[in-house]
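User: Structure please.
Assistant: Input sequence and predicted structure:
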Amino acid sequence: MRALDRKLLRDLVRLWKPALAIALVLGCGIMTMVMMRGTAQTLERTRAEYYADQRFAEVFAHAERIPPATVAAIAALPDVAQVEARLVTAGRFALPGVRGTVQVVSLPQNGAALRLNRPVLRSGRLPDPLREDEVAVSEPFALANGLRPGDALELTLKGRVGQYRITGTLMSPEFVYAVPQGAMMPDDRHHGIVWMDGGRLQALLGLKGAANDLVATLRPGAGEARVLDAIDRQLDRFGGAGAYGRGRQMSHAFLSNELDQLATLANWLPPVFLIVSAFLVNMVLDRLVRLERSQIGLLKAVGYGTGQILRHYLGLALGIGAVGIVLGWVTGWLMGAWMTVMYRDFFRFPHLA
């Protein structure tokens, strides 16, 4: 080992307290960068895959009554790729010791598969279209209330009280962030999503042969504003409430806002720690060089060049940096894994990408 290398090790041992403090500050910057960037990228990929796999709609519209001919006319629009009409309504539920609200969404009649906003079956099975008393519920709602397939659920829809049997639990990209009307945070114990056969829901709402809600996807390069205007013109005479894009859909808007905040923190918080650690390293090296001016002169007198001495002191900074990077990367990876799982459980993603 060369003499300057031995001196470097002695300096690191002698200055271990300030060196460790600087390494920890640097490690915090690396940790937040790895943790937040990794979490944001994982959640972005997870959301993209979830939306694509379950064919999450890009356009949403609601009206008092949507006849089949109007649905066909909207499907024929040149920018529209696919349209699905359905029934959506609000209701109330009652369980022993708890009451709250539900949002009821229809399933296609005759057991046909949904083409858009397809839910993921988490347990049990879908309701049998031949059984009018069967429903499926959102998994977060079921977990919060201890419900399992086979349990009973009392629902009040349009003033009619009915007893239903839960056949399964579902998760949907439309309800990643299921917020009750007028609330800002999810309340899975007092608010849930219920899926019911479309024929049964038509009878309850008095909309035989019609729908009151539709979702659609767009062709590549389509103009969303143009499609929304065309849908509004079609639904205006049927009490249309105004079509809107995915950006204004409640669940997607809340999720996007959270991911944007996470990305902002990932961009702005780590540089603060890195700048502080650079300032501290500069301060320590400046003080060390001033104190060792006589030693530096002696080293040059015995033949060491300026470049060799410079590399020696930069090695001290690199040693501190290496410790900080290792600490920050390891803790950032562990914290990022924990944080990602926390977000998955909060937003109820069925899987992580």
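The two ends are 47 Å apart (CA to CA).
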